[in-house]
């Protein structure tokens, strides 16, 4: 479950969270929102806002309609800019702090640290990503789960949480995850029995259901040669296609919206900033 939301007014509002997971929506005034401890969801409104997640893995949403490059929403961080790793741009940025906590930022134009204010450029943290090392366990599981079970974004949370928990505990590989999901009745319903499908038919169905297109000749032949030679398994092929630049681009909303509460339960947050149970 997501945290309970609190909503501001058309005036300047100030929110500050205490312990636990908070959800604040600033509405239409110039707001200052501080999440406090916990994994918080902070959303500004129609004018410039200052959002501060504080401790925890937070999600901060700004406003995407500013016309003046000098205007925009600001995410505030304690400490020096050199203590943080910053990836991405105004569409989607990830800021990792010295304590290992990670904040997700959406439509945020400025990052304010104790020593400097940085302006983000256009772009997304996901630009150019598409290999296993680019993603944490939860993101890897989400990509493979959607690809293997053809959920088209409708991922059931109990199943997602189960696979994330066991992957983090046992450091499961992409191949193991793909193979385990391929053994499910749901996979057989969507794709057919992987043990009886020919390599050609398997690839055709994976391309169509995962990438929503017919396989290109070169890509199909690449995987087919490896499968026929026994150099990779069908689960290898599924995992490789699931965690590829093309599928990463097609699964941006899933990756961006992943949210973990303080109790370690994963869910998704809609693009309007509200939590999805």
TrEMBL record:
Q: Select a single GO molecular function from the record's annotations and give it.
A: calcium ion binding
Please give one Pfam family short name: DUF4214
Q: Provide the DUF4214 domain boundaries.
A: 178-249
The record, for Gene3D superfamilies, names:
Phycobilisome linker domain, Serralysin-like metalloprotease, C-terminal
| UniProt name for this protein | DUF4214 domain-containing protein
Q: What is the lineage of its organism?
A: Bacteria, Pseudomonadati, Pseudomonadota, Alphaproteobacteria, Rhodobacterales
